[in-house]
């Protein structure tokens, strides 16, 4: 996927970013959850594969192969839909298709490529529908299992909700998931555990967003660079546009983890989102530290934290303790 959005896939910088991104995924804070029989590894594979096909489809559109592009975008929606059966946070990827549909619909009214935009709108709707079906279908099966074939008085409470969803009921009833419910003094250590990953997820998402909106960059202000640095140096123009869209679900997931979820799960959910891998890999390639206000954090410290956290998490997970 890194090479799909690269300006020059065979260049040393691009291949290094691709290799380092893969290495960072191996030592990601998800740690043991990517090896244990949990949903994280399957979700990460399907979600990253969906992003890959999404990028491939838009690159095909850019290269003048609209039929291939539409077909591949639909396939990306299928993979996103399957990923939703493992982790419901994959539903946030629907925001990408919502944006695409609105853009194609608006452009279709003011563009000579009316037919092409209509076709892209249809493929986007199909892809988004497949994504949504991956979340709705398990809810339908649960409704058929628990809310039909018996008298309503025997139904679980969620069956009579305006929008019956076993997922939201279980999250609320058994896990006490809700806005600011996790904000208690006893959970303060878990917020500290999650803080580095929240910082990385939000900062990387905002960086990729700004790289397309207002020319944000890694903070590389080297006088000897004569090229235009108002872009991530290894990415193509199409890649910059795509990553600015992918930033939306990543940042929104981080905000929801901070305000609504059990905050420590962000260390596991982050494994399925590519932007922060690219951000850290780019920082390593261009030898840029992470900046927190006036402080600079060397990348070797970040990598050591990831390895150390994965080891500590494995011990805690084996003992059925948070952040398990």
Portion in beta strands:
under 5%
- Global outline: globular
Total helical elements: 11
Tally of strands: 2
Report the helical percentage: 55-70%
Mean pLDDT: 87
Instruction: Write the element-wise H/E pattern from the N-terminal end onward.
Output: HHHHHHHHHHEEH
Strand order of the largest sheet: 1-2
Structural class: mainly alpha
| Distance between the amino and carboxyl termini | 30 Å
Give the low-confidence spans.
Answer: 214-231
Largest sheet: 2 strands, antiparallel
Radius of gyration: 21 Å
Question: Which descriptors apply to this entry?
Answer:
2% strand; globular; 61% helix; mainly alpha; 324 residues
Summarize the structure.
This protein has 324 residues and is mainly α. The protein contains eleven helices and two strands, in the order H-H-H-H-H-H-H-H-H-H-E-E-H. A two-stranded antiparallel sheet has the order 1-2.
Topology, please?
Elements: H1 12-26, H2 39-62, H3 66-84, H4 94-109, H5 114-146, H6 166-173, H7 188-213, H8 237-259, H9 266-269, H10 275-285, E1 290-292, E2 295-297, H11 299-318
Polypeptide structure, described:
By secondary structure, the chain is mainly α. Helices cover 61% and strands 2% of the residues. It contains eleven helices and two strands. The radius of gyration is 21 Å and the shape is globular. The relative contact order is 0.15.
């Amino acid at each position: 996927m890194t090479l799909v959005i690269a300006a020059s896939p065979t260049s040393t910088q691009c291949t290094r970013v691709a290799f380092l991104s893969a290495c960072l995924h191996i030592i990601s804070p998800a740690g043991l959850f990517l090896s244990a029989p949990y949903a994280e590894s399957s979700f990460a594979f399907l979600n990253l594969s969906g992003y890959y096909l999404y990028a491939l489809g838009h690159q095909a559109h850019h290269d003048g192969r609209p039929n291939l592009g539409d077909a591949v975008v639909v396939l990306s929606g299928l993979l996103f839909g399957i990923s939703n059966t493992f982790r419901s946070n994959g539903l946030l990827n629907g925001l990408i298709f919502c944006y695409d549909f609105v853009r194609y619909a608006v452009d279709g009214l003011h563009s000579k490529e009316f037919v092409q935009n209509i076709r892209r709108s249809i493929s986007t709707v199909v892809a988004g529908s497949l994504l949504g079906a991956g979340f709705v279908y398990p809810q339908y099966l649960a409704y058929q299992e628990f809310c039909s074939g018996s008298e309503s008085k025997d139904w679980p409470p969620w069956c009579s909700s305006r929008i019956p969803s076993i997922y939201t009921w279980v999250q609320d009833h058994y896990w006490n998931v809700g806005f600011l419910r996790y904000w208690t003094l006893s959970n303060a250590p878990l917020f500290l555990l999650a803080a580095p990953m929240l910082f990385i997820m939000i900062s990387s998402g905002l960086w990729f967003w700004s790289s397309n909106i207002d020319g944000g960059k890694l903070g590389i202000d080297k006088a000897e660079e004569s090229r235009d640095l108002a872009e991530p140096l290894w990415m193509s123009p199409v890649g910059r546009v795509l990553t600015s869209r992918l930033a939306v679900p990543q940042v929104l997931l981080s905000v929801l983890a901070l305000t609504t979820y059990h905050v420590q799960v962000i260390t596991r959910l982050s494994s399925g989102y590519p932007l922060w891998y690219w951000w850290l890999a780019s920082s390593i390639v261009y030898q840029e530290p992470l900046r927190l206000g006036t402080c600079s954090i060397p990348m070797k410290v970040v990598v050591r934290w990831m390895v150390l956290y994965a080891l500590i998490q494995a011990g805690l997970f084996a003992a059925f303790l948070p952040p398990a």
